[in-house]
Amino acid sequence: MNNRTIPLITIYGSHRQMGNQIGEACRQQVAHSIENAHFLLSEAYDELQLTWDGAQIQSRKYIPFAEERYPQYVEELKGIAEGANVSFDDVAVVNAMEAVTTDALHLTKCTSMAVNQACTANGTVLVAHNEDWVPEDEDDVFLIHATPDDEPAFLAMTYGCLLPNIGFNAYGIAQCCDSVYTEDCRIGIPRIMASRAVLAAKRPTDAIRHMLAPKRAAGYNHLLVHESGEMYSIEVSARQFAMLYAEDGYMVHTNHYIDPEMKKIESEPDELISTRVRYWRATRLLTQSNRHTVKTLQEIQRDHLNYPDAICNHDSTGDPLDREKTITALVMDLTNRQMHASWGNPCENTYNTYQLKA
User: Is the pTM of this model over 0.90?
Assistant: First the structure.
C-alpha cells in the first residue's frame, strides 16, 4: 500500500480571497488541469468537433447565468485564475466542461453511499464516495479546509481549478455528486456552481433548493446527508427532479436515474450498464451489515467485481471519452466531522484522516 497524503489547503476570507489562496497554493495543479482539459478535447475532436477556442466561446454563454444567481462563486473562479496566473476563460471551460461538451463525456463510474445510526456499529453517520475521472487529473487532487466570511466552514475535495462540491460543512451537511445524463440540458447555471452552493447550506431544505436552482443547465444526482441521519438522493436534470429517501438507514447512488419519471429522460440508457452493476453490488455489500464502520465502507470502496469497471475503478485505457479510474476515495464521518481520504485507488493507497475545525 502506498502512503500518499492528499495536500490540504487552508483558505479563509472573502470568496475572491479564497479563490486567490487556492490558485497561489495549487498553481501547478490548476495549470496541469487546464492542460489535461486541452488534451482531452483534442483527443476527442473527431467525435466532439470542438476546439479549445470553441469551448471558451461556449463556456462564456453560461457565466451570465452563474453571475446572476451565484456571483460569489464566479468570484472564487476569478480568484483561482488570478492566484494561479492563468486565464479566467480557461478556468471557466474546465468548470463548464460537462456542459460545453453536451455531456458527450459519458464518464459513468463514480459511486456514492451512506449509512446512518441504524446501520453503524457506534451510532455514527457515515458517507462514502469514490471519485472517478481521467487518470491524468489524479495528481491534481487536493482537499480544502475553508472558513468563508459569510458561509459555514467546510472540508471538501477537488482537483485542479474545479470548484469544490464533494464534502461536508460545519452544520453537518454532506454532499456527494454523481454525473447523470439527460436529454433536457440547456444553457444556464453550470451544475458545479449549484453543487458548490450546497456546501454553504445550513439546513437540508436550503441544500435542496440550491440543487434545484432555477435556470440550471443540467444536474447531478446529489447524495445529501445530514448529521441527524436524514439521507436523500436528489436526482436532478435541467427541468425535472426527484427525491428519494433512505427509509432503511442506507443509501447508494451511481450514475443512472432510479426514479421512474427521471428514467424517461435519461440519455442513452443502454450505454449505462456498468453504473447499474456497481449500484446493485454496492447495495448488496452495504445491506449485508447493520454494524458499519469507516473501515467496512473502505472495504466496499476497494471492491473489484466487474473489474476494471468496478467500484474501485481501473479502466484507464482506451477511448478518451470513456477512460477513467478512481482518483480518490473518501469516507466522511459526520458525527465526528472527519474525512478519511485515499489518494488514488483505495486498493493501492492508504487512507489519511482530516478534521474540520469550525
Answer: yes
